[in-house]
Every structure is written in C-alpha cells, then in structure tokens.
Design brief:
binds manganese (II) ion, binds nicotinamide-adenine-dinucleotide, alpha/beta
C-alpha cells in the first residue's frame, strides 16, 4: 500500500465529546424543569419533552408556560426594572461582565448541552455559538458602562418580551438579553420549544452572577406561550426571532398597542460567485454558508448564483466537496453535519425537496445515519421563480442558478421578498465593492460568509424584518428618548364661512413626479380661515393618487445614489428660495392656523433645512472593530420610499421636517399634507420647483388622512410609513405594515421638538459589509 492509498482509505476514528457533565446537570434537576421567574424555578409540570434529535432520547421534560406564569414573569420584570435602571451603567456592567465570565467558565457544559438538545455539531457549538454568546455579554458590559456618557438622551424602554428560534438557542438568547440588560431593561424570554435547556442553564447562571431577581425571566413553552408574552399589556417592547409568518402575525397582533417591535425573520440569501473568484475558497465558503448548522441558519447562503463561464467547473468541485462531508453523531468532534432539530423539521425539508420537479438534484455521496439526518443536497438548473429558489427550506439544501453579467447577478440576487444577507465572491475588489451596495440585504460578506460579531449589526430589510442586533445601532431598539415628549395637539379644520367662491379656480393641485396633478376622483374640499374667509380648495387624494405618487417616488430612486454633498446643496437651495418668500409663507400659515406663529414656523423650517443639509454628508457609516483581519463597515443606506402623514398643527414644518430628513438620506417620499391646514404645503411645491429637486423625490398629496393611511400602509412598494397625524391611525398603519413588513414610525410629540437625528435614523438602515483581507 502506498502512502497516498493509506491516506485515501484512512477513516477518522470517533472522537466523542464527553457528555457526563451535561447529564449530571440534567440529573441534578431531576430531568424536569419549571420556568425561571423572579429569580427562582417554578414547579416542574412535565408538559412536554425536550429531545436529542440525533438519538431521539428524551433529555428532560419542560413546562408549558401558562397565562399565570407569564403574568408572574411580567410582574417580576416590572418590579425589577426601576431598580435595575437605577443601578446605573457601571453597576450593570459588572453584572454583564459576570455573566460573560460565567459563560466562559462553563463553556464546555453549555456547548455539550446545546449540541445534545439541538443536534448541531459540537465543533460549532464549542467554537462558534458559545464564544459568540460570551462575546455578546462582554461587548454589552461595555455598552452598559458607556451608556450615561455616550447615550445621555436615551432611556430604557422598560419590560421586554423576547421570543426566539431553535437554531441558535443560546446565541439568540445572548443577542436578546445582553443589549436589553445593558440599557437598563428587564426581560421575559421564551426559548423555542425544541431547545429550552441552555436557556434554563443560563437562568441558573444569572443567579450565580448576581443578576437581581426579576431582571431575567425565562418562560418555556410553545407558540401559545409566545403569544401570551408578545400580546401581554405589561410588555413595552417585543423582540422576535423566527419565521416571517409568525413575525407578520406579531406585527398585526401588536398594532396600535404602543409596543416597540423588532423582527429578525427568515431569509433566502444569495451566494454570488464571479468567474474571477478563488473557486476553491468559494466552495469552502459554501460549506459554511449552507451546511453550517445543517442549513438551519436564517442567513444561510441558500441560493447559489454562479457566473456562466465557470458553472460546470464550480459544480464539479462543489459535488466533490459535498461527497467528503461527514454526517453523524453531533458530539463527535470530527463531524461536519449533525442532526436536523426535530422530525417535524426533517419532514418539512423532505416535502419541499420531493415536491420539486425542476432542475437536477445531486445528493452527497456520504453515509447518512438513521434518524433525524438529511444529506447535503444541491439542486441546479432552477429558474429564478422556482419555489426552491424563492422559499426558505431551512435545511442542508442548496438551490443554484447562473448569471451572465454583474447587473444580472444583482437582479437575480434581489429577486426575492427577503433581504437578510448576501455573499459576493470575486478576486476583483472593484467588482465586489460595486456589487455589495446594490444587494438588498442587511449584511453582505465579501469573499466570506456567516461572519458575526457583537460589534457589527445584524438584521434584515424587506420581509427579513427590521431592527438590528449588535453594534451601536442595536441599542436603538432597547432605548427610547429620555425626555418625555408632550403628545401633539390634534387640530381640525375651521368650519365653513359664508364667503362665496370667486370665479377663479382656486383648487391647489397635488404634486406628483415633479408636476402638478389633479386629484383622480375630482373631489375637493374648501379650506376656511378662523374668521370664515375662504382660503382655497384642495383635492382629496384617493387610492389611485397614492399609487401614482408611490410610482413617481420609486422612479426617483436614483436620488439615493447621488452624493450627500449634492443633496446638501439642494437642501440649501430650498432654504434659500423659502427664505426669499418668508413673509408670504408666514402670512399663509397665520391665515391657516388663525394664530401668529407663522414667522417662527418659517424660521424653524429654514433651520431644519440647514440642519438636514449639514447632516447629509455626515450621517455616515463607521468601520467596526471586529476580531478578524479585515473590515466590517456599517453603512447607512436609505430606507427607500417613505410615506408620511404630516402633522396637522404645523402646516409647513410638518412637511418640511420629515421631508428634509428623507431627502438628506437619499430616500424619496409621498407626503400627505396637514389635513386641517394643507395650503402651505401646496404652496411649497413652487419652492421645490425652483430649487432643482428632481421630479418624484418629493410628492405632495392632500386630503383626509384616514382615507389614504391604509393604502400607504398596505402598499407593497412603500418601505416605510411615518405618521405625525392622528394617533387613532397608528393601529391601521401598523396592521397594514405586516404585508411587506415595512418599517413604521409613529412618534409621540410634535415635529417642533423632534431632533433631526431621529428623523435620519428612521430614514436609514445600517448595512454591514464584511471585507476580510487575504493572509
Ligand atoms: P417560528 O416562527 O415557528 O418560531 C419562533 C419562535 O416563535 C418560537 O419560540 C415559537 O414558539 C414562537 N411562536 C410561534 N408562534 C408564535 C406566536 N403566534 N406568537 C408568539 N410566538 C410564537 O420559527 P422557527 O421554526 O422556530 O425558526 C425558524 C425561522 O426563524 C426561520 O424562518 C429562520 O429564518 C428564522 N430565524 C431568523 C433569524 C434572524 O436573526 N433573522 C435567526 C434565526 C432564525
Ligand atoms: Mn431538543
């Protein structure tokens, strides 16, 4: 036998990790767990089993949290929240640091327990899940320490209800609990029903680390328990990780309740390989992209998009690599692919793959153990519209297609309702950095995949949800403005007076695509002064007008690709032209409101325009300090098309403030003018016309907010809806937003007190672009 033959035939011997410590811990709890509420475990009720999917063995029984349990947990969290916040950042930092240390000290126990309960390879839980969870607590210990100094205008939100998925049980817990605690919140967290055990071990760690009773509560159970948490009146903020379907349900269920919400949902992330890529590295990357955690990864590179010239070569290399993957006992340190979390999930994967009739299916020629295992699978030759190209499989199945040109690559990559992550492989830095910003995704990896760190934000766009976890941006979700703001006064139009309408047509037009537009239905409404003088008429926008305006705003998307410098120039120009007509606008405002605030309001508008112009080239990204050789760039990207219901009481500032922020960040907008006092907004488009604002960037509609709020909120091509209007509309807006999971922003308090920074935050999303360097 030659040496090379020996190498070829040599097999790995099993190298199992010991499970004795984990078993001892389970035995110590009598293999039955209650919930962890107010610092203690409740009585175990044995409602359901938590199993090891690799063997089918029952590990322990877990309790299904009831309404009473959730009530007790929320109450404990509420009671603990004030003192926890008052402990101060430095005090909380000590506790978070102790949690990080505890995770480190017990890292092997956490890793083995995670692998037992979830089925993921021990190499992954030991080298990825647990270290990243530790890192999250260290990082946020630092954030607690810095909060008072660096975020003086932010305060804790209160009690957070957090519901997570089963694919990274401990890591998702860390992503939820660490930032919440750092910012002075308390939590009620529900782990997923397949994987409760590391959350319960973490609960025990909380007691050891000196987390005060009630600050962390763990309520176990299924979706019903989840709903009891997300829909509980005593919860101030809901954070959810899971499927888009359940996320959408939670969006609707929490609409109008005033609860803050962040959603980390599903994905179908593209993995783009250009012909000049380092193909072997790209193949190796794919192993991490789609076979990491058996493909049960929200940001898995599950859609392979390969440039045509290299397709055959690349598929051949990939298949060879697939054949070499080792499936088996997750506790074996030599295993690449472990068990699927549960037979139910296995069946879902089977049904999806078996139901596919397109393309060619290649199944890795590796041994597949009996039980909850699924072989690495590649399906090539799929059309972009194929179900397996569009829907999340959440298993070790890669769907592949090809492209010719870079622009086609972007088109295919973005042809999905999701937008979580993307990978781009090319040895040409120009290609890679040209493609990255064009991808609809919250995270982009250049020549890499599945890189994570606490210092870099993670989260989606489109139907992958909203909100970020990690980085400074992740703290926004766990804080609110510190100064309480007075709710703005709702105004109504003045009643009709006696004056007859003159012979002139005084109906102010709407403004769509840079042109004046008559209302579709031809209905209009008279606007009267306080003294009963007829000031003019405005059209009443209907669905069709909204759709036209949204279409115009979409066509103007090129605005987002212009430079901050250019956008600043145009904002200054608007200010200049408004300033020239200051007296006229001031008088108009006074007529409309029947008050004397017109001059001050115009001055505030000028100030706002200058402030937005100032920020246009400064509200930019950062390079984040992540533990890789390379960069993680946190880029601010425009949210897209924003629909705004303008504040009633401020006829001009109600338009100009959100508009200035939208324009500065490269978004485009549909602005529905103050319902009671719309005529200052319709006058304003003359200012826009003379200020070089490209058509479609700003569109102005008039009419009843109640008539258009639903259309804007339901519209699949609107990325965000902001309402400064009647709070009664918030519920409808948030319900409609569930359709395409658009962002909503319905702040309390008037535009006058609103810091421009908050508008800019709402107008942008952070995209993290990872660029590792070669050795
Ligand atoms: P799931 O939505 O079925 O369940 C997630 C969690 O929600 C579980 O704890 C479940 O008990 C709970 N739940 C179910 N119904 C609920 C309801 N009506 N109200 C409140 N809670 C409810 O998802 P899953 O199957 O556990 O996880 C897989 C999904 O999670 C995939 O789509 C994946 O992409 C996504 N995911 C996303 C991220 C991310 O960060 N974006 C991370 C991990 C997983
Ligand atoms: Mn389990």
């Amino acid at each position: 036998m030659s040496v090379s033959e020996i190498f070829d035939t040599m097999d790995y011997g099993p190298a199992p990790e010991s499970l004795s410590e984990a078993m001892a811990w389970l035995d110590g709890h009598g293999r039955a767990f209650g919930c962890f509420i107010d610092g203690a475990f409740t009585k175990a009720r044995g409602d359901f089993e938590s199993r090891n999917p690799a063997t089918g063995d029952v590990l322990a029984t877990v309790t299904q949290g009831t309404a009473e349990d959730v009530e007790a947990a929320v109450k404990a969290a509420r009671k603990a929240q004030g003192p926890w916040a008052k402990l101060g950042g430095a005090g909380r930092a000590r506790v978070l640091y102790a949690l990080a240390r505890g995770l480190q000290k017990h890292s092997r126990l956490f890793a083995v327990l995670e692998t037992l309960d979830n089925g993921k390879p021990i190499r992954e839980s030991r080298d990825i899940d647990v270290p990243l969870a530790q890192r999250h607590f260290y990082y946020h210990a630092g954030m607690a320490q810095l909060m008072e100094e660096e975020l003086p205008d932010r305060a804790p939100v209160g009690v957070c209800g957090q519901v997570i998925s089963w694919n990274f049980p401990l890591l998702m817990l860390a992503w939820k609990i660490a930032p919440a605690l750092a910012m002075g919140n308390t939590v009620v967290l529900k782990p997923a029903e397949y994987t409760s055990l590391t959350a319960l071990l973490f609960a025990e760690l909380c007691s050891q680390a000196g987390v005060p009773d009630g600050v962390v509560n763990i309520v176990t159970g299924d979706g019903q328990t989840g709903a009891l948490i997300t829909e509980h009146d005593g919860i101030d903020k809901v954070a959810f990780t899971g499927s888009t379907e359940v996320g959408r349900h939670i969006r609707r269920a929490t609409a109008g309740t005033g609860k803050a919400l962040t959603l980390e949902l599903g994905g179908k992330s593209p993995y783009i390989v250009f012909e000049d890529a380092d193909l072997d590295s790209a193949v190796e990357g794919l192993v991490d992209a789609i076979w990491f955690n058996q493909g049960q990864v929200c940001c898995a590179g599950s859609r392979l998009i390969v440039q045509e010239g290299i397709t055959e070569d690349f598929y051949a290399r990939l298949k060879r690599r697939m054949d070499g993957l080792r499936l088996g006992d997750p506790l074996d340190k030599c295993i690449d692919v472990g068990a699927i979390v549960d037979p139910v999930q296995l069946e879902t994967i089977r049904a999806m793959v078996d139901g596919n009739t397109e393309g060619e299916t290649y199944v890795a020629a590796c041994a597949v153990p009996e039980g909850c295992f699924y072989p690495p699978t590649l399906i090539t030759g799929l059309s972009p519209a194929a179900q397996l190209m569009q829907d999340e499989i959440f298993g070790p199945v890669l769907a592949a297609t090809t492209f010719r040109t870079p622009s086609e690559a972007v088109q295919v990559a973005n042809n999905t309702r999701y937008g979580l992550a993307a990978s781009v492989w090319s040895e040409n830095i120009n290609t890679a950095l040209d493609i990255a910003p064009q991808l609809s995704a919250g995270v982009v990896w250049v020549n890499g995949t599945n890189m994570f760190d606490a210092a870099a934000g993670f989260g989606g766009v489109r139907e992958s949800g909203f909100g970020r976890e990690g980085g400074w941006e992740g703290l926004m979700a766990y804080t609110r403005p510190a100064k309480a703001r007075k709710a703005v006064k709702q105004v109504t139009a003045f009643p009709a007076g006696k004056a007859a309408l003159g012979t002139l047509d005084r109906t102010a037009k709407m403004y769509v695509g840079g042109k004046q537009a008559r209302p579709d239905a031809g209905y209009s409404q008279r606007i009267w002064s306080k003294q009963g003088k007829l000031l003019g008429e405005v059209g009443l926008a209907n669905r069709k007008d909204v759709r036209n305006a949204v279409e115009a705003a979409h066509k103007a998307a090129g605005w987002g690709k212009t430079t901050g410098h250019l956008r600043a120039q145009i904002l200054y120009y608007i200010a200049e032209n408004l300033s020239a007509r200051e007296a006229e606008f001031a008088a108009r405002i006074d007529d409309l409101t029947g008050a004397k605030g017109g001059k001050a309001e115009v001055v505030a508008c000028l100030d706002t325009l200058f402030s937005a112009a100032a920020w246009a080239d400064k509200f930019s990204g950062e390079a984040r300090s992540v533990p890789i050789r390379g960069l993680a760039l946190a880029l601010r990207e425009p949210t897209g098309v924003v629909g705004v219901l303008c504040e009633g009481a401020s006829p001009l500032l109600g338009l100009v403030k959100p508009m200035a922020g939208v324009m500065a960040m490269g978004c485009t907008g549909v602005f529905v003018a103050s319902e009671a006092f719309p005529l200052a907004a319709t006058d304003f488009y003359q200012v826009l016309d003379t200020s070089d604002v490209p058509g479609g960037v700003v569109n102005i509609l008039t009419g009843a907010h109640g008539d258009v709020a639903g259309t804007l909120a339901d519209h699949m091509d609107v990325e965000a809806v902001w309402s400064f209007s009647d709070p009664a509309l918030t519920k409808r807006i948030e319900e409609g937003a569930a359709g395409n999971l658009k962002r909503t922003w319905c702040p309390v308090g008037g535009v006058a007190d609103l810091p421009m920074r908050e508008v800019l935050e709402a107008a942008t999303e952070v995209k993290t672009v990872w660029v590792p360097y070669g050795a």
